[in-house]
Amino acid sequence: MPSDFLHADPADPSAAHHPQILLRFREFAERYDTLLCDIWGVVHNGVRSWPDACDALHRFRQAGGRVCLITNAPRPAAFVQHLLDRLKVPHHSYDAIVTSGDLTRAMVAERAGSNLFHLGPERDLPVFEGIDVTLSDHASADAVVNTGLFDDDTETPDDYADMLRSFRDRGLTMICGNPDKVVERGDRLIYCAGALADAYEAIGGEVLWAGKPHPPIYAEAVRLVEEASGRPVDRDRVLAIGDSLRTDLAGAERFGIASVFIASGIHGAELIGESGLDAAMLEASFEAAGVRPGAIMTRLVW
Question: What is the pTM of this model?
Answer without folding.
Answer: 0.82
